[in-house]
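Sequence only, no structure available. Ideas?
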Amino acid sequence: MISPWPSLVTVAALIVYFVVTINVGRARAKYKIMPPAMSGNPDFERAVRVHENTLEQLIAFLPALWIFSVFVSPIWAAAIGGVWVLGRIIYAWGYYQAAEKRTIGFAISSLTYMILLLGSLVGIILNVTQSGVLS
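Reply:
I predicted one. Tokens follow.
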């Protein structure tokens, strides 16, 4: 059976992505930047960058979360993944204020992603060597 914990983190990550998507639309209306324009007001451009970067990170985060969950631990995957979600919220909150304030959130989400990715690799290697697939 699939653990509910990584599933919950997946839903939380998708909610964060949905919120930053809505924020781009709100910024478009507020600063009167009509599609297809992607530049103009710096506050709008920061909202776009938060959205784009969150999407870029989400594409790598979700597989790492689930592979870690399968090969290491669903509880640890959810805990680490929850920190990733928190890091993305801190990233967005900071970046909306000023580009310089995005660093801490970016570092948190990047570090947790790397832990999930490397942990997944170790879990897969241990699984393969213990199952005798290489013999």
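The CA atoms of residues 77 and 96 lie 28 Å apart.
Hope that gets you unstuck.
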